[in-house]
Amino acid sequence: xxxxxxxxxxxxxxxxxxxxxxxxxxxxxxxxxxxxxxxxxxxxxxxxxxxxxxxxxxxxxxxxxxxxxxxxxxxxxxxxxxxxxxxxxxxxxxxxxxxxxxxxxxxxxxxxxxxxxxxxxxxxxxxxxxxxxxxxxxxxxxxxxxxxxxxxxxxxxxxxxxxxxxxxxxxxxxxxxxxxxxxxxxxxxxxxxxxxxxxxxxxxxxxxxxxxxxxxxxxxxxxxxxxxxxxxxxxxxxxxxxxxxxxxxxxxxxxxxxx
Length: 259
Fold this sequence. Notes:
This protein has 259 residues and is of the alpha/beta class. Helices cover 37% and strands 31% of the residues. The strands form two sheets. Strands 3, 4, 5, 6, 7, 8, 9, 10, 11, 12 and 13 form an eleven-stranded mixed β-sheet that branches.
């Protein structure tokens, strides 16, 4: 080493070994480098333990607006180092070209075959209406009664022309053609219309559970069910995900597992 450095680092004599002035400087510089390496390692380890940084998330309106109060406070309390940037739209996105870290969606195909989907929940779909609406128009007792009611119809991506209701008791299927005075491609509009007493609407249970619990909405035909819908996270890859992405997806999976 002395030969490669072109300097004597150690005095050698019959009394033993001792560092030269150059050796002491070299030793101090090496210690400084090692300490910097240790600090960098500690910082990286801390980052892995406590996710941080900006996280860009694409969400459908149901999750990003109507369900926001159910999951966001707990996430921010648990991960104060993560700065969330939410984009709320029912349109599908391309993670890479649109600059998102992760996207959550409810049913529908993946926008990009290279993406990976992780199921967060399979949610029941329920019919609801406001108490005031039911007081004016009566409570449907069977699927056929819906022909005499105002239906609030979703007209977004690949809308269905009917509701397919399955009886919980015997599995009998009833097809309800979708008619009504209001159609919208935004679930938020239908949600507001249902609360305003304008008709009967279909939502996933997590979207309306708070309003049902408060008595603002009432289950209609509770002994029938519509086909369930899948909540999933859309990821660029299952491998090498940033800690902040893993934390967000795990939090949402835990959230839907509890409700």
